[in-house]
Amino acid sequence: MSKKTTLAALALIMAGGFGLWSVTSGNVNQTLAPVSSAVAQETAPAADVPAIEVKDMTLGPVDAKVTVIEYASYTCPHCATFHANVFKDLKKDYIDTGKIHFIYREVYFDRYGLWASMVARCGGDMKYFGVQEMLYKDVQTWAGSDDPNVVVGNLKKIGRTAGMDDAQLDACMQDGAMAQAMVDRFEASMKEHDVQGTPTLVINGTKHSNMTYAEMKTILDAELAK
Q: Which side of the chain, N or C, has fewer Cβ within a 10 Å radius?
């Protein structure tokens, strides 16, 4: 994808509710529809500014024998199901025991998913996965409105539950430069593993589609046994 998006304008959506995209969480499916292809504007070349680092969000030891990368969207119902039915056991049996290094990479189907990711990152590394759990557990509630202002309010409520205040959340959600950097990183990651839908899992370099915990356990145990 060569077109750049106007994510500075996106920051204004968060405060004012002005819509650039018509996609809502109820219309999301597993087919990848990147944010950048849904925006109606292009940006002029950006001025020379320091690059913004968009870190991988990770759990488990970096030197583990097995690395698992999950590509997922916070507005993807299949991803929410995966986290309810698979991730909890994966974390208990493989991440918390130090057997695997887990990397979570965000996919943005729509503006709601991007905003959710910005809220999740707002509290830093220590709070990220706790906010993630709340986002997936309650996605039908926080993302269930066609009104962007309602969704922003719902996301801020989740952020406050995680210990962030309104000033901190407003600063994060109105950071257009970070939003642009997150989309740029998403596009690069998507190309790296040819991600076509979510959830996509990459286990020690091999790409897999959505699966049950039993199926994933079989693959992980085989990798650990090598």
A: C
Question: Residue 223 burial by CB count (10 A; 0-12/13-18/19+): exposed, middle or buried?
Answer: middle
Cα distance between residue 211 and residue 195, in whole Å? 15
Out of 43-57, 97-111, 121-135, least confident range: 43-57
Q: What is the DSSP letter of 107?
A: -
User: Pairing between strand 206-208 and 200-203?
Assistant: antiparallel
Q: What is the DSSP letter of 178?
A: H
- Given a cut of 70, whether residue 10 has pLDDT beyond it is no
Separation CA 79–CA 87 (nearest Å): 10
Residue 13 one-letter amino acid: I
* Residues 106/117, Cβ–Cβ less than 8 Å: yes
- pTM metric for this prediction: 0.81
Do β-strands 200-203 and 66-72 pair in parallel, antiparallel, or remain unpaired?
Answer: antiparallel
Whether the bond between 77 and the residue before it is cis, its omega within 30 degrees of 0, is: no
For residue 76, is it left (φ>0), alpha (ψ between -120 and 50) or beta? Answer: beta
CA angle in degrees (0–180, nearest 5) for 150-121-199: 85
Place of tokens 């500014």: 49
Predicted local confidence at residue 109, as pLDDT: 86
